[in-house]
């Protein structure tokens, strides 16, 4: 049969032709076989050809040959389908739509080894795509089948088994089911196998142990050499194996640090991944994401990376790889992790003039790159020092960032909000740049988004914009935001949004008497909304922000103070104790502090109505509650309690 | 490689003894070499590794029978691999591509650089055979889309197509593309990719062992005068130059 291979050579590089489709459907097995081989040889390695054959409708015709009885037809059909599915999602979808999946599965029990191999290879290609159907590990026969794949001597089988795990194992229930069925043992055996078996095993192990301490412990205790073989593989000659081995160790470290106590391993991983970043191909690309998972939220590792000159290397990579979107994204994310905590990293970042490169990335064509650039800016700008120096508030950065607020991609918008949230903090002169280029309008628009994360981040940025702002700026913000919108955000269905809205009001009414007036606009609707939220507060954080708002308002004039009293002690008492008593009894010391602050501001001795307010507070049982708190475990609370009690004394009839 | 490390250790010991440049006579040296125990099986494995990796299937088969050394790969796969290599060396690139795809369709699907180089070689062969029109069409249909995906492919493609612009290709700046060495380069790239797909190392161990020997001799030259191996094919020890 293979003798026919070169028959069509003179014309085989021509476009996918409809004639080929006819031949694929031929009843003559010779003609059909030649056509299948032709399709296969044209599409392998050639994305354009895959697409044009796909459009021509060749996939169902190729898949139909899986019904054939001749081995050679089955092999060629399976190989062609596998190639359609290789690294090409549209191809995977077409193969699945053609109903080829169950037929490929049934090839695995065919009496001819070559057919079996071809089937397993094709299925593996399909399982490398997100579009592959989810494999149900919870069904007993599926698990048996998977175990038989992993126990096989045959590489396409073990490869398929690993791809299934990597694709379909997501929940901890699935992870635990795999562990209990003995999959870890099989994978540990494969660590001794061939190159592709080792790689498949390492990636599968990482998938099963990710965020699952039970699985990680089981792996470590499964065999004395399991962990040490993975450590050994970080020194393997193949870069991909080294990368996957380090990924596996990082998963174990992040899941249960107790299994990798050795200090040396941290340093080794840092240096190994920095070295792998230099790989010009896919390994280098993935290395940045693995590196990020190693150092994210781990200050000790960020320090090690800093000492290993990671910033210099990453800066060079930024220069060299700006045209490779995925790699560029990975590098930006690693930079973001490095600069998230350490001021030393941030100043090195700025001294390398990396800021300009990251700013340029804000306008990159690729959405993931834009989002990563925002995340990076957010990390670098988490620094009072750099914010004060005004590094981020010039138009070169602010204008593209504001533009990203109406990026078509939600993740970019959210990331941009994160960066803006930091940049607008604190510095009045720069706030005007932001407002001038339309940033405020967009933030207000996004605070009305259907997406709760977007509302949260937008309000967070608005809150920071309001922080220590002057009155003109505050007025501008409220004018844009409007009182009704703000009060409805205080009552948002999401608790986290409520917190940010309350914190925004807290910043708004902070400062001079004029500021306090904002809470009373349009018939006190903001103040009433706050009162309602505090009455039903579901989270301590809501109580804290709400009480600070009341505390700030209570620092105003008599009218303001009485309005706060009205919220604390409603006229018609329905028998329930006021929320303030609940807060004073809370387990959260910050909430107790916030509550006492409001009381202190209400009973400040020099204000004329203080005496009558103390009487009201006493009648409502609030004074006696505070008296029980003189020995509060929190020093902060204790100090405020004493101040409050001192003020009550001033109006007491001696019995206080 | 244990053999190598034994030699290195010996060299290191000698090095440690040498305070100034020490002279070691041929007799002393040979005595030391005789003290080094090398397993015959290890030597055999080294030879088998060379024969398998380089694709000498008949020799490997004979050697297996004579020495009892088992190859770490199915010898039948060598035949297939050699057929691919030979096809490229003879300029039958399309035939080679089909053979690789029969062997394992993943190789060219997951190795864009190799796939490009094979297609480039196909183009070179068309140009060599004077099929100008076909060459242009092939470049446009098959290679241009790869160039769009990758900048360095595009540069290589431009270089190859420029062959068509010269009257006398043997004497033009890109003439080396038509050289037989270009075929050998492509052939060895395919060979390496097939070996990797079979989880086999793509280079034999023997040449790197010889490179290490040269390196070790150079290191030792700094410290001592001793019998050198200059001719690697005979491995004769030459008297130290004093």
From TrEMBL, chain A:
InterPro entries: ARM-like, ARM-type_fold, Armadillo, ARMC8/Vid28. The lineage of its organism: Eukaryota, Viridiplantae, Streptophyta, Embryophyta, Tracheophyta. SUPFAM superfamilies: ARM repeat. The keyword Kinase does not apply. GO terms for biological process: proteasome-mediated ubiquitin-dependent protein catabolic process. Keywords: Cytoplasm, Nucleus, Repeat. Pfam families: Arm. It comes from Juglans regia (English walnut). The keyword Hydrolase does not apply. Signal peptide: none annotated. Its main location: cytoplasm. It is found in: Cytoplasm; Nucleus. GO terms for cellular component: cytoplasm; GID complex; nucleus. This is Armadillo repeat-containing protein 8.
TrEMBL record, chain B:
Residues 77-134 form the CTLH domain. GO terms for cellular component: cytoplasm; nucleus. GO terms for biological process: proteasome-mediated ubiquitin-dependent protein catabolic process. InterPro entries: CRA_dom, CTLH/CRA, CTLH_C, LisH, Ubq-SigPath_Reg. It holds the Pfam family CTLH. Transmembrane segments: none annotated. This is Protein GID8 homolog isoform X1. It comes from Juglans regia.
């Amino acid at each position: 049969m293979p003798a026919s291979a070169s028959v069509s050579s003179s014309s085989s590089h021509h476009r996918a032709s409809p004639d080929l489709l006819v031949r694929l459907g031929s009843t003559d097995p010779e003609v059909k076989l030649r056509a299948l081989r032709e399709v296969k040889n044209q599409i392998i390695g050639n994305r354009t050809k895959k697409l044009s054959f796909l459009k021509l409708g060749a996939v169902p015709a190729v898949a139909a040959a899986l019904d054939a009885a001749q081995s050679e037809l089955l092999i060629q059909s399976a190989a062609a389908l596998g190639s359609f599915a290789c690294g090409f999602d549209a191809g995977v979808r077409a193969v699945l739509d053609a109903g080829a999946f169950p037929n490929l599965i049934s090839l695995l029990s065919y009496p001819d080894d070559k057919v079996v191999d071809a089937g397993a290879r094709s299925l593996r290609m399909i399982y490398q795509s997100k579009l592959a159907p989810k494999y149900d590990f919870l069904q007993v026969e599926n698990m048996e089948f998977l175990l038989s794949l992993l126990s096989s001597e045959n590489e396409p089988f073990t490869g398929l088994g690993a791809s299934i795990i990597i694709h379909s194992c997501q929940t901890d229930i699935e992870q635990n089911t795999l562990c209990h069925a003995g999959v870890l043992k099989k994978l540990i055996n494969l660590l001794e196998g061939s190159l592709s078996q080792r790689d498949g095993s390492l990636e599968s192990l990482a998938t099963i142990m990710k965020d699952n301490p039970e699985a990680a412990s089981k792996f470590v205790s499964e065999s004395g050499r399991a962990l040490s073989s993975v450590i050994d593989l970080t020194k393997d000659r193949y870069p991909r194996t080294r990368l996957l081995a380090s990924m596996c160790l990082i998963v174990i470290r992040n899941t249960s640090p107790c299994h990798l106590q050795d200090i040396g391993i941290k340093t080794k991983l840092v240096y190994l991944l920095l070295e792998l970043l230099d790989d010009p191909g896919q390994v280098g690309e993935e290395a940045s994401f693995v590196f990020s998972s190693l150092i994210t939220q781990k200050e000790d590792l960020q320090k090690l990376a800093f000492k290993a000159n990671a910033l210099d290397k990453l800066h060079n990579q930024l220069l060299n790889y700006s045209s490779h979107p995925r790699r560029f994204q990975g590098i930006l994310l690693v930079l973001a992790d490095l600069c998230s905590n350490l001021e030393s990293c941030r100043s090195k970042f700025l001294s390398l003039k990396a800021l300009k490169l990251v700013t340029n990335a804000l306008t990159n064509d690729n959405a993931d790159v834009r989002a990563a650039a925002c995340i990076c800016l957010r990390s670098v700008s988490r620094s009072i020092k750099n914010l004060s120096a005004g590094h981020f508030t010039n138009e070169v950065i602010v204008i593209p960032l504001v533009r990203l607020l109406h990026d078509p991609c939600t993740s970019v918008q959210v990331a941009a909000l994160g960066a803006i949230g930091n940049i607008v903090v604190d510095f009045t002169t720069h706030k005007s740049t932001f407002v001038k280029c339309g940033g405020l309008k967009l933030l207000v628009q996004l605070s009305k988004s259907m997406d709760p994360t977007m509302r949260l981040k937008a309000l967070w940025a608005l809150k920071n914009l309001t922080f220590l702002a002057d009155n003109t700026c505050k007025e501008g913000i409220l004018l844009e935001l409007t009182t009704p919108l703000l009060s409805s955000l205080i009552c948002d269905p999401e608790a986290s949004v409520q917190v940010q809205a309350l914190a925004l009001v807290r910043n708004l009414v902070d400062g001079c008497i004029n500021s306090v007036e904002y809470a009373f606009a349009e018939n006190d609707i903001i103040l009433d909304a706050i009162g309602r939220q505090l009455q039903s507060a579901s989270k301590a954080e809501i109580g804290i922000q709400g009480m600070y708002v009341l505390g700030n308002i209570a620092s105003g004039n008599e009218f303001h103070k009485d309005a706060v009293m009205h919220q604390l002690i409603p006229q018609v008492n329905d028998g329930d104790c006021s929320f303030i008593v609940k807060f004073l009894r809370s387990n959260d010391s910050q909430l107790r502090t916030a509550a006492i602050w409001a009381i202190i501001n209400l009973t400040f001795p020099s204000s004329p109505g203080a005496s009558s307010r103390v009487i009201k507070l006493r009648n409502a049982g609030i004074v006696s509650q505070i008296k029980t708190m003189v020995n509060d475990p929190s020093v902060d609370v204790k100090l405020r309690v004493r101040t409050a009690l001192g003020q009550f004394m001033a109006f007491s009839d001696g019995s206080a | 490689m244990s053999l190598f490390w034994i030699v290195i250790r010996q060299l290191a010991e000698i090095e440690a003894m040498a305070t100034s440049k020490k002279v070691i006579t041929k007799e002393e040296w040979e005595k030391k070499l005789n003290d080094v125990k090398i397993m015959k099986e290890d030597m055999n494995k080294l030879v088998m590794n060379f024969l398998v990796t380089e694709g000498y299937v008949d020799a490997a088969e004979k050697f297996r029978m004579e020495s009892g050394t088992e190859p770490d790969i199915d010898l039948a796969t060598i035949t297939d691999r050699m057929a691919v290599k030979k096809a490229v060396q003879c300029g039958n690139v399309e035939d080679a591509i089909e053979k690789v795809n029969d062997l394992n369709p993943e190789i060219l699907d997951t190795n864009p650089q190799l796939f490009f180089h094979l297609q480039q070689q196909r183009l070179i062969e068309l140009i060599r055979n004077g099929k100008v029109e076909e060459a242009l069409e092939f470049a446009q249909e098959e290679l241009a889309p790869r160039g769009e995906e990758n900048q360095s492919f595009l540069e290589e493609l431009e270089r190859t197509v420029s062959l068509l612009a010269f009257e006398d290709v043997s004497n033009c700046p890109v003439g080396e593309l038509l050289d037989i060495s270009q075929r050998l380069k492509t052939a060895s790239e395919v060979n390496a990719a097939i070996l990797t797909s079979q989880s086999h190392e793509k280079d034999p161990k023997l040449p790197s062992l010889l490179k290490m020997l040269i390196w070790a001799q150079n290191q030792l030259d700094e410290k001592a005068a001793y019998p050198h191996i200059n001719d690697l094919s005979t491995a004769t020890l030459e008297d130290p130059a004093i």
